[in-house]
Amino acid sequence: MSHEQKSATPTTKKVVISVDAMGSDRGPASVVAGLALSAAEFVDLNFIIHGDEAMLAPLIGSHSILKARCTLSHAPRVVTMDDKPSHVMRHGEGTSMWSCIECIKKSEATVAVSCGNTGALMALSMIRLRKLPNVNRPAIACLWPSRNAGGFNVMLDVGADIKADAGDLLQYATMGVAYARNGLRLKKPRVGLLNVGTEEHKGRVELKLAHELIAAASAAGNYDFIGFVEGGDIPGTVCDVIVTDGFTGNIALKTGEGTAKLLSDLMREAFSATLLSKIAALVSMSSLKRLSRTMDPRRVNGGVFLGLNGTVVKSHGSADATGVAAAVRLAYQLAASNFTSDLAEQVASATHAGQSSALNEMPQAAVNG
């Protein structure tokens, strides 16, 4: 193995990832270039690439490192960003996205990666892979840059479903713990429930009930529940997993991305405004580059669909080769850590703990009938 190639964990067989090469806003060239970067990073990584063979074969052939590590699966049609999920569910067969998900269903690959239409990808994933037993609503989890030692926190749901009752939030906590354990290598993650304040009397009724359920399941789930957290704690050190509904989570995510872009633009303007500021930028170049890498959204590209019989990573549609490689790196880590099995065990354990807690809190007369 060369010094440029590595394996995140020792594996006895190749890790195979299914890739939808046609859904990117930048076209398949960026996707294939990202796969080449990933192949150079992980020596035991292979790909099944789905899309138009006439377009993809020359692109793959231009990267020597991919020639022996890719299987090309021809899919003549593409799911566009304008396609409605309901239409794709009925008529999506033959598209690169459908073919990509089918690989997971048939156990030909461990994780699927796509830059395509988020709603269509979730809909196809749900109908083809189905939900895990006891899961009511799947969730999308993202990595949020933070001050924690690992550099990131997990937040979910960030847009799979705008609704979430107390039981759903418990399942999100359970799935987020499994993701943090496998993706961030945390043995006992700390979980916080997003609210308008940290006091237990604040928030909606379902949040208060979720607070009780998540606390009751913490021992069985092997996590620490720290209670309610506020928006300012999302990038902080208070917890490792932030649980919320998809409506709140998606707004928080988009606000965070917009704020990061605003700060980046303002800094660029400030350091180019005058001759003195340009000199200051030159003197501070190494620090600015380090800050730029920290704020670079490409480093955390990839939302993970949780709660399905298979793992799906959603890359930003506008991701370049570096962004695609980041999504594939995440997919590799989850595949190598047996994430799907661990997630199913976590959900089953938490469901049992939650049911036991609810039974214990019922009046005795109701328990006895």
Task: Provide a brief overview of the structure.
This protein is an alpha/beta fold and about 375 residues long. The protein has helices spanning about 30-40, 55-60, 85-90, 95-105, 120-130, 165-185, 205-215, 220, 245-270, 275-285, 285-295, 320-335, 340-360, 365-369, and strands at about 15-20, 45-50, 70-75, 110-115, 140-145, 150-155, 190-195, 225-230, 240-245, 305, 310-315. Among the domains are: about 15-130, Isopropylmalate Dehydrogenase, CATH 3.40.718.10; about 140-255, Isopropylmalate Dehydrogenase (3-Layer(aba) Sandwich), CATH 3.40.718.
Written description of the protein model:
The protein is an alpha/beta fold. Among the domains are: 15-129, 3-Layer(aba) Sandwich (Isopropylmalate Dehydrogenase); 142-254, Isopropylmalate Dehydrogenase, CATH 3.40.718.10. Helix content is 47%, strand content 15%. The protein is built from 14 helices and eleven strands. It has an eleven-stranded mixed β-sheet, sandwiched between helices. Strand 5 and strand 6 form a beta hairpin. It is globular and about 60 Å long. The N and C termini lie far apart (66 Å). Mean pLDDT is 85; it is low at 1-5, 7-11 and 361-369.
